[in-house]
């Protein structure tokens, strides 16, 4: 059940419309940075393997098989080590992921401002960011005045005042998007780690109990 829940959360994060709209973009020959998906794929793998390993442990307990329970414990140790490694990787790269996406956006934004024709896909990339995240411009002076003189790039507001005061910078929205998603991944990883620790303890207790009872 825990494996199924983790797999479900990971698949939901993987197919979330906001992240997929942004991370599948291409600026010329350059693909949007998709380092974020590394953590998602690890969660998907852990969830799928946990489901199989859970069945193995359940079957081993029913059959009172020390071999199956020992295999179950070994698999859990390996999964736990992978998860700790993924957690360390996520903590180290949590700021870098948003930074890479912001740099990609800034490059597209500069191209969109300089482009005179629709043939340059920088404008398309920028408009996708703006529509998906409901934002406009980076965190600088150009970004602050962009809604006033390049309204073709930004989401339309009801009035000029709303355009000035209700427009949020895309850098801020990108930070909010990925910090929220990484927060969910962190919670899922902690829950899985706690469950794994209890599983390892209980599997060893059961394995020792079976071994001791077989002596008499």
List strands and helices in order, with pairings:
Layout: H1 2-14, H2 17-23, E1 26-27, E2 30-31, H3 36-63, H4 66-114, H5 122-133, H6 141-149, H7 160-165, H8 170-215
Antiparallel strand pairs: 1-2
Subcellular location: Basolateral cell membrane; Membrane
Family: Belongs to the tetraspanin (TM4SF) family.
Disulfide bonds: 135-170, 136-154
Overview of the molecule:
Its main location: membrane. The chain crosses the membrane at residues 36-62, 68-92, 182-206. It is found in: Basolateral cell membrane; Membrane. With 216 residues, the chain is mainly alpha-helical. It has a single domain, classed as Cd81 Antigen, Extracellular Domain, Chain: A. The protein has 8 helices and 2 strands. It has helices spanning 2-14, 17-23, 36-63, 66-114, 122-133, 141-149, 160-165, 170-215, and strands at residues 26-27, 30-31. A two-stranded antiparallel ribbon has the order 1-2. Helix 1 (2-14) packs antiparallel against helix 8, helix 3 packs antiparallel against helix 4 (66-114) and helix 4 crosses helix 5. The longest helix has 49 residues, at 66-114. It is rod-shaped, with a radius of gyration of 24 Å.
Sheet having the most strands: 2 strands, antiparallel
Q: What fold name goes in the CATH topology slot? A: Cd81 Antigen, Extracellular Domain, Chain: A
Compute the CA-based radius of gyration.
24 Å
CATH architecture annotation name: Orthogonal Bundle
Shape: rod-shaped
Number of DSSP E strands: 2
Q: Structural class per helix/strand content? A: mainly alpha
Average predicted local confidence, pLDDT: 78
Q: Given this structure, which CATH class is correct?
A: Mainly Alpha
How much helix, percentage-wise, in residues?
Answer: over 70%
Placed side by side, the strands forming the largest sheet appear as 1-2
Number of domains: 1
Low-confidence stretches: none
CATH superfamily: Tetraspanin
Please count the helical segments: 8
Q: Which range does the strand content fall in?
A: under 5%
What sequence of helices (H) and strands (E) makes up the elements?
HHEEHHHHHH
């Amino acid at each position: 059940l825990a494996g199924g829940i983790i797999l479900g959360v990971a698949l939901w994060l993987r197919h979330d419309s906001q992240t997929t709209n942004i991370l599948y973009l291409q600026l010329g020959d350059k693909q949007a940075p998709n380092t974020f998906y590394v953590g998602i794929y690890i969660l998907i793998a852990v969830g799928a393997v946990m489901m199989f390993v859970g069945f193995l442990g359940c079957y081993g307990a029913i059959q009172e098989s020390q071999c199956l329970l020992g295999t179950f414990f070994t698999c859990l140790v390996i999964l736990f080590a992978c998860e700790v490694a993924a957690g360390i990787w996520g903590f180290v790269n949590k700021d870098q992921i948003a930074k890479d996406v912001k740099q990609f956006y800034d490059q597209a934004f500069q191209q969109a401002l300089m482009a005179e024709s629709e043939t340059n896909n920088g404008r398309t990339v920028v408009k996708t960011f703006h529509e998906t995240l409901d934002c406009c411009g980076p965190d600088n002076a150009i970004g602050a005045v962009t809604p006033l003189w390049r309204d073709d790039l930004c989401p339309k507001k009801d009035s000029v005042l709303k355009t000035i005061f209700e427009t949020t910078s895309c850098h801020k929205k990108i930070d909010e998007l990925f910090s929220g998603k990484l927060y969910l991944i962190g919670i899922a990883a902690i829950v899985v780690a706690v469950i794994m620790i209890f599983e390892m303890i209980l599997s060893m207790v059961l394995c020792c109990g079976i071994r001791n009872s077989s002596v008499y």
